[in-house]
Please model this.
Amino acid sequence: MGIFSKFKPQDSEQQKAEKFKELEKMFGGDKEFENNAKATWLVSRGNHYGDKGMLDKALEDFEEALKLQPDHLSAHVSRAMVYAKKGDKKKAEQLLEEMPEEMKVDGNVVGTKKDILNDVGQIRIYTIKKDPFCKKAKEYLNSKNVIFEECDLSDRNIVDELVNKVGEENLVAPTFDINGTIIIGFDEKKLDKILENYIKN
Model:
């Protein structure tokens, strides 16, 4: 039975007050560690809400977590995911773009934006500007209401990155990287199948 299995929405404030009191006692007045623990707990509860489709309640927890610890990367990502689920992909992408590059506790870096985005899964599409197939591919991803990062192949570093993934002989635009699964070219049927699993997860 999960930590929140007996939890009822109307008990949320009481549950939070009890948990926060427990954490305050545990950390003995060390506000930085205390706030980190409170924020982490809120993110966990918010993710539970999100899994249950209670998106507004989830958003409240993520917002409160970020007031306690503004660089809490999991809170930033989870908040963006809520907006994506609500259908506001533009807002979700903006939040991910603006989130801090790293998270610190007691002066030490404990996480980076790059690592957490890799952990939660990510869609990257490698494109060439003004290419009609790339334009169609981006329109397709937008129609699926998923967050993706566009990687411009006019940048030599991006080319090298893609070559490392597919080899020079397979350097094609568009190419998709969906949580580590590579699709070369715009194959809508194959994308439908992979995105179905990606969205479920």
